[in-house]
Task: structure prediction
Amino acid sequence: MVDVNSKVMSAKEAINKFVHDGEALVIGNYTVGSCAELVYEVIRQGRKGLTLYSQSGIFDVETIVGAGCVDRLVTTYCLRAGGRKGGSAVERGLNAGTLEIEDYTNFQYNARLMAGMHGFSYIQVLEGAMVTDLFHKRSFMGEDKFRVIKCPYTGKDHLTVPAANPDVCIVHVQRCDKFGNAQYWGALGSVAAAALASKRIVVSCEEIVEHDVIQSSPHLTLIPAYRVDAVVEVPWGANPTEVLGYYNMDQFMYGLFMMADGTADGLKAWMDEWVFGCENRAAYIDHYIQKFGSKVLDGIRAKAFYSAPANYGSAFTSRWDRDGKERNMGMTLPEFEQTLKERGKLYE
Amino acid sequence: MSKPYTLQELLVIAVAKEIHDHENVILGVGLPTTAGAVAKALYAPHATLMMESGIIDFEPLLPLNHIADAHSCRGFSYATDLFSAFTMTYRGFVDVCFLGVGQVDKHGNLNTTAIGDYYKPTMRLPGSGGAADFISYAKRTVLTMLGGSFVNKLDYFTSPGYLDGGDSRDKSGLFPKGTGPTMLLSTKGLFRFDPVTKEMYLAQIHPRVTVEDVKKDVPWDLKIASDLSETPRPTDEEIDFIRCFAPAMSAGRELSMELTIVNMMKMLKA
Result:
């Protein structure tokens, strides 16, 4: 018998079970609410040789690249700390030859995951990019970064990208039930495509909620339970980024990170304290409050602005009306069974 | 005469005036979002403001931290995904978009990816993000250049402007006719594109700046509009709006960062 609670586990357990060396890993979040705790756990467990897919790299890509977990990066946007004078782990990796990068536009990157999600082998993207170096300059994808085909209907040249089906997606959402129905709202970005294109899915959430909550708001479910491998409950799981309805961006912690990220030594010292120095998110929050007090975190807790409830109700929920009669045939269950018998429908 | 203003306030207003009422607008982070908020509040109440992350028709209450910032507004009208935000652009539903500039050439082609060699960059810039696709299919594109540079040849060609100039963009058959960059704003002046040659020229110059100051940054023989004017100063209403909505924008990046770091240090000590 399947244990219905088997998907609920710690970040440590989930990453240990579902993220392996040498795999293609996609960070499912886009710019907002990144799965910080899952990323840090990948780093703490010292994964190597990853091909990382990131729609828009922020502290998440910087830390995982800075820690040496990633050989290849597929992305559209990289963070840079400290402007022109500063730097980034991605830039340092490229120059040291320890990191290869494949640049796409936001749409092209997302389209690769959309194709993967829907089971297509490739997808049309917007042809304007054919004149740019995004098309001409290629890295580890080589010929397969883009291919141009003739549209069989119009005869026009179409730019295409291959589908992406990463081995595993790590993603943070607002709430999830123990079965893995993951609800996310706000900037939808590429969250669904990144998760559903992937072979395995590890979800972290601010809170695990009852299944009833999910059933009354299925329009918020971006990832269905049957696709999810692990559910990890991690309050503050996206800090220093923000989670709509839970907390804002933590400008203070992000500021500390940005001041550190410009140099390899700075980033290492920051990670020694905030990634390696805290065994899990609870320890991270404890350390944060011990060091700086709770003022910052208290100040960024979201105030409520609830979505108007959508009415999923219907006129009745049983074929039998309040008099016990079937709504169309107008008879009670004993009358109905009597009829089945009289008409010779029942097998003795 | 309106009250004293900062250069950033003047820049925000110059950008805000590119947004017209009833238009669909894709906003980038930084100056354009503040400009979008000004436009929506003061000149273009029916504009539909959009972000590529799928936040469509929002009214910003705070300056955006990034293009997926639903915390900067109180709800919004349409939640879609990134894929649909770009396909709607491809289909011609976006009137104007705003892009930042790392390097720009005389025909408005952009580099936001890398300075130096792409594979071993002297400086790795953010990348395309949405830029290459937006400038391809939005009806108009406004370029904001606060730190970038004018070059004869881009180190990396991220986003297509008017290609080789003249009718080369239209002739390529890859872009809807008539699309492309319509304006570039720098900290020294406001540039537009010649309708025939598609070469960038100086159309307005900011106060305290000379034409020579502008030419110093441009490696080609920059043409100057015969009716060159000074960028108009913001009105009191505009200044008040910006200072209230985005005080850090009024101060500019350097000063606001400095003040923020000083304040952070105080917090660290306390």
